[in-house]
Write a structure and sequence with these properties.
Layout (H helix, E strand, L loop, with lengths): L9 E6 L4 H16 L7 E7 L5 H15 L7 H8 L2 E5 L7 H16 L5 E5 L8 H8 L11 E5 L7 H12 L7 E3 L7 H11 L13 E9 L8 H5 L3 H18 L8 H13 L6 H7 E7 L1 E3 L2 E3 L17 E7 L9 E7 L6 E8 L18 E7 L3 E9 L7 E9 L11 H11 L8 H20 L6 E4 L32 E2 L2
Parallel strand pairs: 1-2, 1-4, 2-3, 4-5, 5-6, 7-12, 8-17
Antiparallel strand pairs: 7-13, 8-11, 9-10, 9-18, 11-12, 13-14, 14-15, 15-16
Helix pairs in contact: 1-2, 1-12, 6-13, 9-10, 9-13, 10-13
């Protein structure tokens, strides 16, 4: 991102504009773009929701959100005021088709007033039940067609479907009124700088890409975990679970980026073609594979440093007998020439010791140990790509310990984005919003990729639903999950980078 990358003049229509996402993420990110002179010269935000706001009250509320959540903390009041003047508001009943004719009139008036062409982005910052309703109404009001005077795009937040059937139905409904190249399915994980740096790490460095295959990689580990519980989302989460909430979208997309073949060029179609090929190469899971290679868990009450932490079933909005998973670990294989036989281990969970998202490439050990090692894990080189927090890259390799003999110790060579004090690190939404304004869909999910990911996950959901004998393991809040998850890792002495069996946290015990 740089100051030369300025979009065409346009209007951004945010449905669900009174909600938390707009307040905390979207508008603060737009202000950050404005602060860098990376918005169009003629740019308008039109907030749309049912709440009865005046334009002034809506601007005041979003101004508070900018002061609290924008990347730029030193906010100039004059600059903030000039940005807020670009924001307008329209209250409609989003389920009433007639109200969209009023919305169309409002958009046309803003276009004429500010001399903006017919370029328009519709952002669905709404509950998923409106993801088909709003595009239908927009289409019937004639607001969906790209014309000679401008284009139309629509951004859809996750979750994109609840299973393979609902994802296909949602794609079908969207495609009734928008072409695939108009649809931007957003996954904020793909907007993170370190995720994008995966491309550069692999394809701009001659030392990595030749090793990025089954001949040199022993296994790949993808972790995306949180130390928080479900907070106030118990009702939603109990009908979703960790598999749908994190693994099917964020972590599988990240796996696709790690495993993809080099694209023929760096345009959005070429990149997304290669990601789809990865998903199409995922080895299908049979029920016997699911029992053996998929571990699910649910956090139970514990004490962490003297503080009592309630279990998942005690959370507000959660059923007392819930079997919804708050933790999933699985082993998968990608059946293609590059990755044949290399296990990929993916895990996600809530109420773990820390919040971290990272990818670890475990390279194969040397064929003969000249120097003594405690176990196989110590003898491997690791490349760690840290997505969040403290974004960066770390390479582990062996070095001789000073002194007599040949004692070897693993050391780190690392880089942190925070070390670049003069470089600005944009937020994920900042990057993705700007890409959409520029018409770049590289970091957005394509419809066939979404369906392919659901196709892989669906057998797991079906097996859990139909076979009550498949266990759900309890794990104390504040630990790394069920011990059984360590048994997934193939190879003597091999564990996750943060092993589940290391449960000896000071001041923590499980109340079962």
């Amino acid at each position: 991102m740089n100051s030369m990358s300025k979009p065409e003049n346009q209007i951004l229509v945010i449905f669900g504009a009174s909600g938390d996402l707009t307040y905390r993420k979207l508008v603060p990110s737009l202000y950050d773009l404005y602060n860098q002179d990376m918005l169009a010269d003629r740019f308008i935000i039109l907030g749309v929701s049912r709440t009865d706001f005046s334009v002034e009250k809506f601007r005041d509320r979003l101004g508070e959100g900018i002061k609290s959540f924008a990347n730029f903390r030193d906010i100039e009041e004059s600059k903030l005021d000039s940005f807020l003047k670009k924001i307008f508001y329209k209250s409609i009943d989003t389920e009433n088709p007639n109200d969209y004719l009023q919305l169309k009139t409002e958009i046309d008036l803003l276009r004429e007033r500010f001399n903006i062409s017919d370029n328009c982005i519709y952002y669905l910052s709404t509950p998923p039940n409106l993801y088909s309703v709003i595009p239908l109404a927009v289409g019937k009001a004639g607001m969906n067609k790209s014309t000679g005077d401008g284009w139309k795009r629509i951004v859809v937040e996750k979750p994109f479907g609840y299973d393979i059937e609902s994802a296909k139905e949602l794609n079908k409904n969207l495609l009734k009124f928008f072409n695939e190249d108009q649809i931007y399915r957003i996954d904020h994980y793909l907007g993170k700088e370190t995720v994008q740096n995966v491309f550069v790490t692999r394809f701009a460095n001659g030392i990595f890409e030749p090793l990025w295959n089954r001949n040199y990689v022993h296994h790949v580990e993808v972790t995306g975990v949180e130390n928080i519980g479900v907070e106030n989302r118990g009702g939603y989460y109990d009908s979703s679970g960790a598999l749908r909430d994190m693994l099917q979208n964020h972590l599988l997309q990240l796996t696709g980026l790690i495993a993809m073949e080099p694209p023929s060029s760096f345009d959005s179609d070429s990149i997304r073609n290669e990601i789809v090929k990865v998903f199409q190469s995922l080895r299908p899971l049979k029920e016997e594979d699911i029992i053996k290679n998929v571990i699910r868990g649910q956090y139970v009450a514990s004490k962490i440093k003297g503080e009592k932490i309630i279990g998942y079933r005690e959370e507000k909005g959660v059923s007392t007998g819930s079997r919804t998973e708050t933790y999933v670990a699985l082993k998968l294989f990608i059946d293609n020439w590059r990755w044949g036989g290399v296990p990929f281990y993916i895990r996600t969970g809530k109420r773990l010791p820390t919040s971290v998202t990272e990818v670890v490439i475990h390279f194969k050990p040397t064929p003969h140990y000249l120097f003594s090692r405690n176990n196989l894990q110590d003898g491997c080189n690791h490349l760690v790509i840290r997505i969040q927090p403290d974004e960066g890259i770390l390479l582990k390799f062996g070095m001789k310990v000073p002194g007599s003999g040949f004692n070897v110790q693993n050391v780190n060579m690392d880089f942190h984005y925070s070390d670049l004090q003069n470089s600005y690190l944009p937020s994920a939404y900042e990057r993705l919003l700007h890409d959409c304004m520029m018409g770049d869909s590289s970091l957005y999910q394509r419809g066939d990729a979404v369906e392919a990911a659901w196709k892989f996950v669906n057998p797991i959901l079906r097996a859990w639903k139909n076979n009550p004998e498949i266990p759900i393991f309890g794990y104390p809040a504040g630990t790394w999950g069920p011990e059984h998850a360590d048994d997934l890792i193939e190879g003597e002495g091999l564990l996750w980078r943060y092993p589940c069996k290391n449960l000896a946290n000071d001041g923590l015990y499980c109340e079962l």
